[in-house]
Amino acid sequence: MDLQLFKSTNSIDLSYLQLSVNLIEEQLVNLHQTENEQLVAEHVQALYLQHNLMIYLPLVVSHFQQLKFLDVSSNQLTEISDQLVHLSQLTTLIAKNNMLNDNALPKDFGMLENLEELNLSGNSFTTISPQILELTKLKGLLMGANQINHVPADIMKLQKLQVLYLGGNNLTEIPAEMGHLGDLQALILCQNQLQSLPSTISHLHQLRSLALHKNRLTTLPPEIVQLKGLAELSLRDNPLVVRFIRDMIYVPPTLLELSARTIKIKNIPYGQDELPKNLISYLQTAHHCLNPKCKGVYFDARVEHVKFVDFCGKYKIPLLQYLCSPRCKTQPAFYMSDSDCSEDDEEIPFSRLKKVLLG
């Protein structure tokens, strides 16, 4: 090996050699134990070990204390060894396409306090491990093509996160706490099983790209129109695009709800002397119908109705609204952006839907 290469490029490249862990360790040990050991240790900042036959990380890797970039992708790793946490200068770790699972990370993984990019795509994680949530400087977290079925609420700890890639997993929902990731610019949730999104997604004011294609979405939260900076919205292969929903879903109200509606609409006074506490609490849960021509309220029984609205003046998207009865389906109000239009829902030209259809 040519030490001048390391002096000039600050990197060691042993990628695509199909080497076993023993052969890689031998190469690195031989290099590290040269008479220029200090020179190598001080200058090597990038180590490329992808596409080999490693089943674990060589111990000698931890000796390169100035290492900032480590790529161990496409090996046969089942765990990340404890020695890795001693690489205090590491900013990028790429370990995609291995055999890592929820127990693969060391307990002290959070000691990599300078880590900014972590790529664990193509493994067997079912959740975002607690150790990952301790990496408070993380800007990019890529865990696509795993088996993730749960995103913990503590995801909000990653306040510096700019890119979150969770495509190709088994997610059926995402937590409302994701709305606290104020620096997030790209959120990739494609190829999951999402049926809805939390309204808190509207808090992601820095969001530029939102990939939702190949899910089970039938509508989007109305609050999504508040994402004024969103430049890329991918929705293809969702029911809301493949089959526009215009049917109303309505369960008739119970006698309890009908009585409660009458009390609220007629402004009938009541207090603890007239009603038990549970009924008073129930009356306090009333929601007003979104139709401005209707003064009604609802509690549990509501009409789920889909309304197409303009999004940033670019294209129409279907949003879900709740009405108090089927009679209120005509011209219900949405309090959206200035670009809301008054076109009839039934006359949506293909040109207006094209961007949504293509994603």
TrEMBL record:
InterPro entries attached to this UniProt entry: Leu-rich_rpt, Leu-rich_rpt_typical-subtyp, LRR_dom_sf, LRR_domain-containing
Identification of the protein by name: Leucine-rich repeat-containing protein 58
Keywords from the UniProt entry: Leucine-rich repeat, Repeat
GO cellular component, one term: cytoplasm
Signal peptide extent: none
Species of the source: Strigamia maritima
PROSITE patterns documented for this protein: LRR
Pfam families associated with the record: LRR_1, LRR_8
SUPFAM superfamilies: L domain-like (SSF52058)
PANTHER family hit by this protein: PTHR48051, RAS SUPPRESSOR PROTEIN 1
